[in-house]
Amino acid sequence: MKKLNNYIGGDFINPFSDNYIENINPATGEVFSLVADSDENDINLAVEAAKAAFPKWSSADANFRSKWLLKLANYIENNLEKFAQAETKDNGKPISLSRSIDIPRAIQNLSFFATAILHDKEEAFHTSENVLNYTLRQPLGVVGCISPWNLPLYLFTWKIAPALASGNCVIAKPSELTPYTAYLLSEACQAINFPDGVLNIIHGYGHRAGASIVAHPDIKAISFTGGTQTGKTIASVAAPMFKKLSLELGGKNATIIFADSDLEDAVHTAVRAAFTNQGQICLCGSRILIEDSIYEEFKAKFVEKVKTLKLGDPTDKNTDQGATVSKVHQDKVLSYIELAKQEGGQLLTGGQKVDSEKLPERCKNGFFIEPTVIENLPAYCRTNQEEIFGAVTTLIPFENENEAIEFANSTPYGLSASVWTQNLSKAHRVAAKLETGIVWINSWLLRDLRTPFGGTKQSGVGREGGYEALHFFTEEKNVCVKF
Ligand code: NDP
Description:
Blueprint: E1 3-4, E2 6-8, E3 11-13, E4 20-25, E5 30-36, H1 40-59, H2 62-78, H3 80-91, H4 95-116, E6 124-128, E7 131-139, E8 142-146, H5 152-165, E9 169-173, H6 180-191, E10 199-201, H7 206-215, E11 219-225, H8 228-238, E12 244-248, E13 253-257, H9 263-275, E14 285-291, H10 295-307, H11 327-342, E15 346-349, E16 372-375, H12 382-385, E17 392-398, H13 401-408, E18 413-414, E19 416-420, H14 424-433, E20 438-441, E21 456-457, E22 460-461, H15 466-472, E23 474-482
Parallel strand pairs: 1-5, 8-9, 8-11, 9-10, 11-12, 13-14, 13-19, 14-17, 16-17, 19-20
Antiparallel strand pairs: 2-3, 4-5, 6-7, 7-23, 12-22, 15-16, 18-21
The chain binds NADPH dihydro-nicotinamide-adenine-dinucleotide phosphate.
């Protein structure tokens, strides 16, 4: 069986432990590859390789680094189908999504930061006639990037690209649940002769390989995307070491539908926002707040539309809903549906594991959940406050603008919101009052990579995207010259 080994200093290397973790296809339940179970010894080796590569990589001019990142982007583009198939097999997401979003976005991440560095600038201030202050932005050294399983290559490259572009050498770890496209990325590096040691990809469990990255004294910054609890653990280790930290964490995002919204568009997009990638996107709208006067009408149209989602084999190009990423996660999502029922929630559609009789033969042991819509739950119950991160959404009526804002802001999270209204003044007013890092008006997941991306409250610390990301991976130095 294929072994996914670590990529360190330009070579594929077995883990010190010689242990491997089984990698399961969530659509079939079958083990299809083995993933290196790395520990601190592997991290130490990777850090030494990265430190050796740093002087040349960091002192090269921006054009040099830009060209290498563009080569990597081109390689993925030329092998898009191979990457897309691997992502779907590893994660269970519909192939249409891997082809149209995950892999194209990974390519875009690399090319965006490769070209952004050609346009970045440093500041200079003439303090007085004979005093000039200027700012140097210097790379940090060796940095750690840790990413989750939901958008595997997309989020992996979202971190690696700005880190490398700004002159750092990287130790990166994908989730052990979805390591395959990160492994293909290391094959891509070798195929194009990417400079050795600049990017090192380590596989393994978060509590072992990931924790060793966070604790390593020579790793100067940690860019992490994942759960809020993991973020807390990472912060408790990294903060006393004074490492720079960027934490992109969980969400419990509200889709707010006012009575004056374009209902057809709102229903269509709210379904996408709730169920894309089986609800496993940190930005998914898992609470839909609907103005009283249109609640019943919205509900009927929404549920009707959810029932048309085609659930099945993720490799089928017509599938809308694939498999949940793992058996453990499937159980977690199902346990939240049970909780919702105990809390008085009423199921409008879905609510259980998909009957294997309804699945194609090869998917009978896969981890499929019916897209689930629940109503009749108060805004402050656990189902409406905790992140489920699956194909479950709730419908909540509200009376007026103030109540909509109150409900939207009521959770410990603050990642994103989507507001639906034709009233421009109301849209701006509500956007300003929402305690989130991102607000979409009459849209969802419309991304411009130049904009700051991140959350407030327990959704994280710091911003990614654009120059925010490039600057996170640099240290500013003020130089003051008297002449
Ligand atoms: P986890 O927090 O479980 O894991 C994320 C990554 O961290 C994985 O690579 C994991 O490894 C690793 N990890 C786990 N424990 C540690 C540790 N102690 N030290 C260092 N690394 C560790 O998240 P999930 O993978 O389950 O992803 C789902 C979560 O990610 C959801 O909460 C979701 O909201 C959030 N997310 C946030 C986004 C944002 O931009 N705000 C975007 C996408 C997802 P392993 O998997 O091998 O255990």
